[in-house]
Structure formats: structure tokens, C-alpha cells
Design a protein that fits this description.
240 residues; alpha/beta; Rossmann fold; globular
């Protein structure tokens, strides 16, 4: 196994974005591509690490950027402002996500007909929005994602299979919102699953989560169980 990485640039008009592609150079032939959507903090070592793990498991991982190439590594408050702006302008967010997805499809290591997406926190909202657009991806996985509907996808039919991995005590995605997500996905014809972890809060996959906020808290068992569920889901999607 020889894991390689390279930057991949893509554009939305005058805005330039940069993702990081990871693949096993010994695999031979195009492999299923898995987009990795980032948290509030933008593309970081966390998402790049997940892309590399996916490459080790036989996929091509692509850690994307929706804030802009020049903002990678920005401070948290600047990232919060960028995230909030995109949450308020979901068509623009969806356009950037689909551009990133197509940039991944264009890479020679990727089997463009077999792609999926995973995302964390804000990235969980992002991959749910990819599905909501009706984009023909095999599936999406949301880890402790935000569930608020975008307001511009009513009447669409979801082609992707959907897996949402959720802490039941997440104050950013309440039980009522979880139920509403299930109803929304059902109304759009989705093949969906919602795995809820009891006594688990937001950002449960992040060992650096700040417990003092009362919002975020790492949970080792939920982290382990959710990754196992995601691995099984991807394996089912691609028969790997």
C-alpha cells in the first residue's frame, strides 16, 4: 500500500477552492470516490486524515473546501462567519458542493460512476444537502450533522442512500429535528437510516471537543460505533 495525496483546485466563478485527494497508488485502476465535507473550521488535518483512512480502505478520499482557498487555516470566528453566511444562502452552498463533487469525479483515480460523501457537523449538513439536490451519488453519511432543511429542495427526489449518525442529546440537532429529518427524507423517497446514540452530544467524533461549552463532547464508543456503521454503509454501497 502506498498512500499518495495531492491538492486539487476548482472554481466557483472568481472564487478558487482547494481540496486534498488521497489514494492508494498500488490499488490499480479507478476506485470509488468519497468526498469528505468539513466542520465549521474548514478543511483541516481532521478531514485530510479521514480522506487518507478512506484511501487505506480502498476508496479515493477527497477532503473538500467550501470557504475558499485563501481561507484554509482561518481562525474560528472567521470560519463561523463564513459558515453562517452559507447556512443562510443554501443554493450557493449547494453549488460549491456540487462543484467539489465534480472536481473529484474528474480525477483519474476516481470511478466517476461510483461516488459518495461523508461530512462532520457543518459537513454533515453539507452532505445531506448534496442528497437533497437529487444529485446521483450512491450515498451520504452525516456525522453529528445539522438537520435544518434548506428551503429550496421541496419536491426533489433523493437518489442517494442516506445514513445520519447522531447524538441524541445534541443541542444543535434536537430530537424534534431528528424526527423532522426522517419525515423530510421519507417525503423525498430516500432510502435512509438514522442511528442515534444515547447520552451523546455534538462533535462526538472529535477528541478535542470542548466539554466546557455544554454543547460538544467527545464520546469514544459513539465515535467507534459510528465509524463502523459508516464503513459498513460504504461497503454495501460499493460491494467492497
Amino acid at each position: 500500500m502506498s498512500i499518495k495525496t495531492r491538492p486539487v483546485d476548482y472554481r466557483d466563478g472568481d472564487l478558487e477552492f482547494q481540496g486534498m485527494l488521497a489514494w492508494d497508488d498500488d490499488a490499480g485502476g479507478p476506485r470509488p470516490g468519497v468526498l469528505v465535507a468539513h466542520t465549521i473550521r474548514g478543511r483541516s488535518e481532521f478531514e485530510e486524515g479521514r480522506a487518507k483512512i478512506l484511501a487505506e480502505q480502498g476508496y479515493v478520499g477527497f477532503a473538500i473546501d467550501v470557504y475558499g482557498k485563501d481561507t484554509i487555516g482561518s481562525e474560528i470566528e472567521e470560519c463561523r462567519a463564513m459558515m453562517d453566511a452559507l447556512r443562510g444562502e443554501r443554493p450557493a452552498l449547494q453549488r460549491r458542493l456540487l462543484l467539489a463533487l465534480n472536481a473529484m469525479r474528474d480525477q483519474p483515480e476516481v470511478d466517476a460512476a461510483r461516488v459518495a460523501a461523508i461530512g462532520y457537523c457543518f459537513g454533515g449538513l453539507c452532505v445531506l444537502d448534496i442528497a437533497r439536490t437529487g444529485e446521483p451519488v450512491a450515498g451520504v453519511v452525516s456525522f453529528h450533522g445539522l438537520f435544518e432543511p434548506p428551503g429550496n429542495t421541496a419536491g426533489n427526489r433523493i437518489e442517494a442512500r442516506v445514513l445520519a449518525l447522531h447524538g441524541w442529546d445534541d443541542p444543535l440537532a434536537t430530537p424534534d429535528q431528528a424526527v423532522a429529518l426522517g419525515e423530510e427524507l421519507s417525503s423525498m423517497g430516500a432510502d435512509w437510516q438514522l442511528h442515534c446514540y444515547g447520552n451523546v452530544r455534538h462533535a462526538f467524533t472529535n477528541p478535542a471537543a470542548d466539554a466546557s461549552t455544554g454543547v460538544t463532547l467527545y464520546n469514544e464508543s459513539a465515535d467507534r460505533r459510528s465509524w463502523a456503521a459508516a464503513k459498513n454503509f460504504l461497503s454495501e454501497l460499493f460491494d467492497t
